[in-house]
């Protein structure tokens, strides 16, 4: 009897050891704190990138967000992902005037580029969201985009053993919900920074050979006669994060910011987009009316509609327009092209995971 008890104890001990071993081999929630590294001149203007207290940046969260950014099961018919309308080689913008949803319907506005959004304070052309998490939420349920429902999305993700593991490692959760999906995507988007253009090397890093004479002339026009710097601030972001009416139409058909605020004084106002990688992010304006930078510069030179309602305070001084000469317009376009960042457009850390 004594021997039987001893054997039973040994078996129990072995079972306990085996159970502990199995437990230790399971997934562990121990996220690695991460940080968005930017050049010192960016920090001098903007400081450190801020993150929501309930969504700190982690390596695991970024990894998950990257995978979700390219995940087509977010759409109702598994045909498109965030990356379908935000293509890396085009500055995470869409070269089509309007993006096509899963049912073939076209959106009503040009897709916006995803560049340095961690420093933005308002999202979408009409400013209807004030966080990156909110920005990541809407396309999934928009009937002309992914046309899905969040319960269906989370059910699909929950059925994936790979995603269950990734969500646990990133957030310590076993039940996937929409809140954590958008948190992960937002984390990934905050890492998508672009501050390595030839302009940066010239202006901030002191490399006088980084721009040619034509581009230097364009820079002088940008900050001077062209008045571009009034709204596309050279604070390293090339946007002031404001919403402005730049005089496109006498009678704006798209209410812009007014759709969100309900204020008549916001009619025709739209987000001032960044000019970084602007050459790659054509077409231009919220309605894609301009196909080339040459057309954009020509518009500001002589096409601003001064009687547009709520026209921005920076537009009236134009009078009949900037009246830039043909050479000045060409130089300004040359400068804008120097804001391209080839490393950003090919960075494998932002590409679809293999």
Overview of the molecule:
By secondary structure, the chain is mainly α. The chain has two domains: 40-194, Cytochrome Bc1 Complex, Chain D, domain 2 (Orthogonal Bundle), CATH 1.10.760; 198-338, Cytochrome Bc1 Complex, Chain D, domain 2 (Orthogonal Bundle). It is 38% helix and 1% strand. The chain has 14 helices and two strands. Strands 1-2 form a two-stranded antiparallel ribbon. The protein is globular. The protein starts with a helix and ends in an 8-residue tail after the last helix.
Question: Which features would summarize this protein structure in a list?
Answer:
354 residues, 1% strand, disordered N terminus, 2 strands, globular, 2 domains, Cytochrome Bc1 Complex, Chain D, domain 2, mainly alpha
In terms of topology, how is this protein built?
Elements: H1 2-24, H2 40-46, H3 59-69, H4 82-85, H5 132-141, H6 150-158, H7 161-171, H8 178-190, H9 198-203, H10 213-223, E1 243-244, H11 258-261, E2 270-271, H12 293-302, H13 326-337, H14 342-346
Antiparallel strand pairs: 1-2
Helix pairs in contact: 3-7, 3-8, 5-8, 10-13, 12-13
Helix fraction bin? 25-40%
Q: What is the CATH T-level topology of the largest domain?
A: Cytochrome Bc1 Complex, Chain D, domain 2
Rounded to an integer in angstroms, the radius of gyration calculated over CA atoms is 25 Å
Unreliable residue runs:
1-11
Number of helices: 14
Which architecture of the largest domain per CATH? Answer: Orthogonal Bundle
Strand percentage lies at under 5%
The average pLDDT value, as a whole number, equals 93
Largest beta sheet, briefly? 2 strands, antiparallel
CATH homologous superfamily designation of the largest domain = Cytochrome c-like domain
């Amino acid at each position: 009897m004594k021997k039987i008890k001893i054997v039973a104890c040994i078996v129990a001990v072995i079972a306990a050891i085996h159970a502990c071993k199995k437990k230790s081999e399971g997934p562990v929630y121990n996220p690695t704190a991460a940080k968005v590294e930017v050049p010192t001149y960016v920090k001098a203007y903007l400081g450190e990138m801020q993150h929501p207290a309930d969504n700190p940046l982690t390596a695991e969260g970024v990894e998950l967000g990257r995978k979700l950014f390219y995940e087509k099961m977010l759409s109702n018919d598994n045909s498109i992902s965030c990356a379908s309308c935000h293509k890396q080689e085009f500055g995470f913008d869409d070269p089509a005037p309007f993006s096509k949803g899963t049912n073939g319907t076209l959106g009503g506005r040009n897709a916006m580029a995803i560049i340095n959004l961690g420093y933005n304070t308002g999202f979408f052309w009409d400013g209807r969201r004030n966080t990156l998490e909110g920005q990541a939420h809407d396309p999934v349920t928009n009937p002309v985009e992914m046309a899905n429902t969040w319960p269906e999305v989370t059910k699909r993700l929950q059925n994936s053993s790979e995603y269950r593991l990734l969500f646990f490692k990133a957030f310590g959760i076993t039940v996937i919900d929409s809140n954590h999906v958008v948190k992960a995507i937002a984390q990934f988007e905050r890492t998508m920074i672009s501050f390595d253009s030839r302009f940066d090397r010239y202006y901030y890093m002191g490399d006088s050979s980084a721009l040619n004479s034509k581009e230097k002339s364009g820079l002088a026009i940008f900050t001077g006669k062209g008045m571009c710097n009034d709204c596309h601030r050279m604070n390293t972001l090339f946007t002031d994060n404001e919403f402005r009416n730049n005089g496109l139409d006498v009678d704006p058909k798209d209410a812009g910011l007014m759709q969100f605020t309900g204020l008549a004084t916001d009619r025709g106002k739209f987000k001032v987009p960044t000019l970084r990688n602007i050459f790659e992010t054509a077409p231009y304006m919220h309605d894609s009316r301009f196909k080339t930078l040459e057309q954009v510069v020509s518009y500001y030179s002589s096409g601003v509609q001064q009687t547009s309602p709520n026209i921005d305070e920076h537009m009236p001084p134009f009078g009949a327009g900037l009246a830039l000469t043909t050479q000045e317009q060409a130089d300004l376009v040359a400068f804008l092209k120097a804001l391209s960042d080839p490393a950003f457009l090919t960075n494998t850390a932002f590409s679809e995971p293999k």
